[in-house]
Amino acid sequence: MVLATNPFIFFSILYECLDGYGFTYCKKHLALLAIKPAPTMSEKRILWQPQPDNAMQKFREFVNQKMGADFRNYQELYAFSVSHSEDFWRLFVEYIALPLRKPPLQILERHTPWRKSRWFVGAEINWAEIALESRRNSDQLAAISYDENGLRAELSYRKLYTRVAAFAATLKAQGLKPGDHFAVFMPN
Predict the structure, then answer these.
(1) What distances in angstroms separate CA 144 from CA 139, 141, 153, 184, one per listed residue?
(2) What is the number of other CB atoms lying within 10 angstroms of the CB of residue 157?
(3) DSSP letters for 99-155
(4) DSSP letters spanning 155-171
(5) CA 88 centroid distance within chain
(6) Per-position pLDDT tens, the chain of length 188
(7) Between 17 and which of 26, 87, 110, 149 could a Cys-Cys bridge form, CB atoms 3.0 to 4.6 Å apart?
(8) How many CB atoms lie within 10 A of CB 80?
(9) First-to-last CA distance in the chain?
(10) What contacts 147, CB < 8 A, 6 or more positions away?
């Protein structure tokens, strides 16, 4: 028998039972919380299953090839990601071909407490460049804006890339360098 999923209710009634409400009260209320046993695997209907040739499968094969391993399923790959987290994340970055401007000096710099640990120490990446570079020659719509008067403006990826590059060049010409801060005042 499986108890209801709300542990607060279950423990509240259990506390009342322990606090002297009597056996009949406890038996009645705990019985109300009881539900049918969970169905067996043969009784469960699978709602979704990934295709055999999916992204996780391909990544697992990549890890197996690179590490000389034989991870046969998600659970084994997950266990590897926990026990060898530095190797796992190094391989993941390699697999997705993340275009780092500068490679990491160290994958993980462990600290106590854990939240102070640092990942990919020394690596550099330009997210704007990654987002725009592959579409820099595309006339597909990148953004739509409306001004306060309701005037609509559209911007293609090609135009967006050109404007971002021009703005970056202006900032560099003004002497802005990595680590500097600046603010922009503009409409939403």
Answers:
(1) 13, 8, 6, 20
(2) 19
(3) --SB--SEEEE--SSGGG-EEEET-B--HHHHHHHTTTT--SEEEEEE-TT--EEEE
(4) EEHHHHHHHHHHHHHHH
(5) 15
(6) 444 444 444 445 444 554 444 455 555 555 555 545 566 666 778 788 878 788 999 999 999 999 999 999 989 999 999 999 999 999 999 999 999 999 999 999 999 998 999 999 999 998 888 888 888 899 999 999 888 899 999 999 999 999 989 998 999 999 999 889 988 887 66
(7) 26
(8) 19
(9) 57
(10) 153, 187
Q: Are 105 and 121 in contact (CB under 8 A)?
A: yes
Q: In Å, how far are 1, 9, 12, 19 from 33, measured between CA atoms?
A: 10, 9, 12, 19
pLDDT per residue as tens digits for the range 96-133: 999 999 999 999 999 999 899 999 999 999 888 888 88
Contact of 80 with 88, CB cutoff 8 Å:
yes
Strands 34-35, 106-109: pairing is unpaired
> What backbone phi and psi angles, to 5 degrees, belong to 69?
-105, 180
Residue holding tokens 């695997």?
A: 41
Provide the angle, in degrees to the nearest 10, between the axes of the packed helices 23-33 and 7-16.
170
Q: Which residues pair with 121 in a beta bridge?
A: 106
